[in-house]
Amino acid sequence: MTKNNIAIILVAPQMGENIGAAARAMKNFGLGDLRIVSPRDGWPNEKAESVSAGGIDIIKQAQIFSSLEEAVADLSYIYATTGVSRDINKNYVLSRDLAQDMPAGNIGFMFGRENWGLNNQEIAYANKILVIDTDKEYASLNIAHAVSIICYELFGAKEVLRADLNNTQALASANDLNYFYEHLFASLEEKEFFRVPEKKDKMRQKIRNLFSRIDKLSVQEVQILHGIVTALAADEK
Amino acid sequence: MTKNNIAIILVAPQMGENIGAAARAMKNFGLGDLRIVSPRDGWPNEKAESVSAGGIDIIKQAQIFSSLEEAVADLSYIYATTGVSRDINKNYVLSRDLAQDMPAGNIGFMFGRENWGLNNQEIAYANKILVIDTDKEYASLNIAHAVSIICYELFGAKEVLRADLNNTQALASANDLNYFYEHLFASLEEKEFFRVPEKKDKMRQKIRNLFSRIDKLSVQEVQILHGIVTALAADEK
Predict the structure, then answer these.
(1) Which of A23, B75, B154, B191 could lock A52 by a disulfide, CB 3.0 to 4.6 Å apart?
(2) In the prediction, which pLDDT does B210 show?
(3) Residue pLDDT, tens place only, A210-236
């Protein structure tokens, strides 16, 4: 699934490695439209290709522009990503709130050069400033990391299919677990584990509490637990 | 502001550049405790230093370990970060839901090697799997990007790192749990539980996976588990 209404725009990027890493991150999060304005080291760029890994098709299809104006011409809404708040009278949104902020239409995300980001003239092309909130002590994000975090937020903006992450092993029922407790308690009884009769119920409760906290215990795992109790309780040969 | 109860653990990382980029991302998002298990190219690593940029202090103070077991010994809750769902019966949480999931205490986040991530034996050390949701078409995240995204989520979680009001009991550390495993495995060995030698490691891993899923295991509960094993393994009177 590719969100084809979203463009990532790298403005005057310096290092091919970062362009490649940005393309890889785009691919990881289902984006495909990469636009590059005046890459310092020209184009094509070998480093960009090798670092892009599975995102190589994005590098191959990237559009190269000599001006930002051309690069954003077909977009209806543009965010300028900056690490720190700027002294510009423009609205900003935090990356965490991006999903709720985006309008419909063709949307672009601008990222600046490695050493000093976007200049104010470039930011003027944006409808809004997009801020990745960082620790004040060191706010300078690697450009590919910034792209990665924004792509990650954009990916989260759609429905997540949580269901298919669930593992498929057969889960133990409450009954399965009860048989295990009976087995364990009987064996413990036999081995005189419950030395203080008045504390027996309380201790059994603690043991139940402990094992019942194993989330999503499978049938196979309950069998392993039975096996452990049986083996341990057997008399030495 | 540094969250000093959170450790980032890189397991057998291959490229110094990625270690450096991970340290830079940690610095961006206010983390400081970097632990590296068996870095492929040794330590110190020049590439790691140069790429870390403003995170150089994190590289300088990084702790190097030769085993994962030592690296996580003092941690009370461990997440294993994986890009795809695994056929392991362990709980998982999506990175987006991490803030709500974290218990109080010393928490570690494990990240695997560049080419194939964490192996199942390593994942067995974790209490939970942490999944960065990606596009199915290309799920392989650069390791430093994965670290960056998790650090970004942790930074957003700062207000949520609250004292756990429900559970005032002292939580067991990974070390406490290791002593229990040693006790259990030794007792099982004695009772000839591991009948098929080739399956022994696999079975031990399954048992670790099972017990490590007990959420927020307390010191007292680990003592109960020791007591159970001791009692069961004792010869009948």
Answers:
(1) A23
(2) 87
(3) 887 786 788 889 999 999 999 999 876
Residue B95 DSSP class: G
Contact A27 B213 (CB under 8 A): no
Chain A residues touching B232 at Cβ < 8 A: 187-188, 191, 193, 229, 232-233
Identify the architecture of domain A3-157 in CATH.
3-Layer(aba) Sandwich (3.40)
C-alpha closest to that of B218 among B121, B78, B77: B77
Contact criterion met (CB below 8 Å) for B107 and B75: yes
Q: Is B224 exposed, middle or buried (0-12, 13-18, 19+ CB in 10 A)?
A: middle
Q: How many CB atoms are located within 10 Å of the residue A26 CB?
A: 29
Query: Tokens 């463009």 appear where?
Result: A7
Q: What is the chain A residue with the closest CA to B55?
A: A138
Q: Cβ of A218 and B89 within 8 Å?
A: yes
CA-based nearest distance A163→chain B, Å: 11
The chain-wide mean pLDDT, for chain B, equals 88
pLDDT at residue A152, rounded to an integer = 95
pLDDT at A167: 45
Per mean pLDDT, which range of A16-25, A96-105, B20-29 is the poorest?
A96-105
Element (H, E) at B91: none
Q: pLDDT above 90 covers what percent of chain B? A: 62
- Nearest chain B alpha carbon to A225: B207
Q: Which of A95, A133, A142 minimizes the C-alpha distance to B1?
A: A133
Q: Is the pLDDT score of A91 beyond 60?
A: yes
Shortest distance, CA B28 to any CA of chain A (angstroms): 5
**Residue found under tokens 């940005």:** A22
Q: Does B143 touch chain A (CB under 8 A)?
A: no
Q: Is A54 on the interface with B (CB under 8 A)?
A: yes
Residues 6+ apart with CB under 8 A from A67: A37, A38
